[in-house]
Amino acid sequence: MKITKSRKEFINLYQMLGYLGELTGARFTYTISKNKEILKNVVEEIQKTAEMHENYREYEKERVELNEKYTKRDKDGNPEIKDKNYVIKDKAKFDEEVEKLKEKHKDAIEEREQQRKEVEELANKEITLDLKTIPLSIVPDKVTVDQMDVLSILIKD
Predict the structure, then answer these.
(1) What pLDDT digit, counting tens, does each position of 114-153 carry?
(2) Burial of 67 (C-beta count, 10 Å sphere; 0-12/13-18/19+)
(3) What domain count does the chain have?
């Protein structure tokens, strides 16, 4: 069955199909597996496009090193973290060094931002995939309402 949706929606479907692992039945699980195989190509296409370039990876490495250098540490030497962020001990000096780092890697940062926009555009673009339908008769009886919501797009009455 041909279905047209955005890549982002197909990626979501791929992830949701992964949560159906406890459902059984040879024909049912085979069809789910085949659809995941088709959808995996969409996931991999986005992942490949979003892969960090080497020059940005270098910036990230140096940025993390700066965070490590300026973070407050507890008595055991572990970084202090508040609200999922490092607690910085000399904020003014840290900010100054971060600005220098951003200037040094300006091109890499701009390229990464452009790459993010391209990934977002690609993810939002609609494509048509030929997915395998699932006859309602082979859907396991123990399917929950939430699982049926995921499957509904693929079920053929």
Answers:
(1) 999 999 999 999 999 999 999 999 999 999 999 999 999 9
(2) middle
(3) 1
